[in-house]
């Protein structure tokens, strides 16, 4: 199964909220994927086992997976565009 990680500074509030929302949006679109919230300090460990990274804060380095704008899922501004990208990456 495909895996998406959402990372913020602590891996608790913001990333959990975005992960929950993304999970629901994917379920509504009938896309099977696991969506996990993680803290930014452990990103290097989690990035190895994911297909897409949704970043709440601007990444400070390159990663071997697509990176999406997590703020779009948080605010709703540009969310449909990011959701479309996510679904395409997960296909």
Description:
The chain has a 4-stranded parallel beta sheet. The chain contains 4 helices and 4 strands; from the N terminus they run E-H-E-H-E-E-H-H. Strand 1, helix 1 and strand 2 (33-39) form a beta-alpha-beta unit. It is α/β, with parallel strands linked by helices and 91 residues long. The mean pLDDT is 94. The protein has a single domain (2-90), classed as Rossmann fold, CATH 3.40.50. Helix content is 42%, strand content 23%.
Low-confidence stretches: none
CATH topology: Rossmann fold
β-strand percent reads: 15-25%
The Rg value, from CA coordinates, equals 12 Å
Cα end-to-end separation: 11 Å
Based on the model shown, name its key terms:
single chain, Rossmann fold, 91 residues, alpha/beta, 4 strands
Please specify the SSE layout and strand pairing.
Elements (H helix, E strand, L loop, with lengths): L1 E7 L4 H16 L4 E7 L3 H4 L5 E4 L11 E3 H6 L3 H12 L1
Task: Summarize, please.
The protein has helices at residues 13-28, 43-46, 70-75, 79-90, and strands at 2-8, 33-39, 52-55, 67-69.
């Amino acid at each position: 199964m495909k895996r998406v990680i959402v990372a913020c500074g602590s891996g608790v509030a913001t990333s959990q909220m975005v992960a929950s929302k993304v999970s629901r949006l994917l379920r509504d679109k009938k896309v099977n994927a696991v969506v996990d919230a993680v803290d930014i300090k452990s990103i290097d460990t989690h990035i190895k086992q994911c297909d897409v990274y949704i970043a709440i804060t601007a990444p400070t380095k390159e990663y071997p997976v697509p990176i999406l704008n997590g703020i779009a899922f948080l605010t709703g501004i540009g969310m449909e565009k990011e959701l479309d990208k996510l679904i395409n990456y997960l296909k």
